[in-house]
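Hi there. Long-time user, first ticket. I'm pasting a complex I've been working with (about 305 residues overall). I'd like to know whether the download I got is complete or cut off, because the file seemed smaller than I expected. Thanks.
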Amino acid sequence: MLKGVITVMLQPNVLDVQGQAVEGALKHLGFESVEQVRIGRQIEMILPTEDHEAARLQLSEMGKKLLANPVIEDFQIDIKEA
Amino acid sequence: MHCAVLVFPGSNCDVDLYKAVLHLKGATVEYVWHKGTDLDRFDVILIPGGFTYGDYLRPGALAAVSPVIATVKKAAESGKLILGICNGFQILIEAGLLPGALLPNQNLQFICDVVPVKVAQSDSPFTSSYQLGDVLRLPIAHSSGNYYCDEVTLKKLEVNGQIAFCFPAENNPNGSIAGITGLLNEQRNVLGMMPHPERAVKQWLGTSDGLGLFKSMIKHHIA
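Hi, the file is complete. Here it is re-exported in full:
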């Protein structure tokens, strides 16, 4: 079994208002030098296969069809031993 | 004109929309559960607002892959009128029936207000009862209505006349690009909009400026 991890982030050209608000709060806490805070989402799942290539292909389809919105988001795939 | 109001888990403007149509002369209406796949008997498909599937993943993302939306896509191709309001607009965008994306409001707040909305296209089955440039007073109630698209898409929308409604430049509550808050597809038989015309059909509701939208659809159906 493999564990698939998809990390979805807003594309660099899309303004992340949530990230900006969190950046402001971090600065307020004293982390003044912090820059370009961006917020994403991580989705984990177990895939009943040992075939890394097949798993990657499947995760990529999931990312394109549902888990990320290609208009505003990019996603990255990681595969680990479950 | 026979209308379907689609109902998903988490829809909450379905009754408002149903009643708005029910009180119109020349229109009949039925609810359709999201697992339904037969929409042949309807002339118009209405997708109401709400928080389908709790807005999980992204607003509209999970509803956009439900069985009824596959049928809505075919209906759109065949030229049937499809109107998505608020969460219905988000669903149409997630389903790929309209271009762009709807991001969280620029101020990160849920906005519930009655605001001025300008008619930017009166040559469509949804807006023909209005004059170009009319400023309507319509309710809005959303947290992700901040319309976004890239420059190339924006140019295309402008050239094709696909922008149906926009906020006036001096009063853009959610940060949408070019104030866009109502969008047609290229064929102009699909409209998505953030403001709620179904909550603006009687003067005692505060405004009846949304009525023109329903009247336009009836006019289109009779013609």
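A couple of notes from our side: The domain at 2-222 of chain B is CATH 3.40.50.880 (Rossmann fold). The interface with chain A takes residues 57-58, 61, 65, 94, 99-101, 103-108, 148-150, 175 of chain B (CB under 8 Å).
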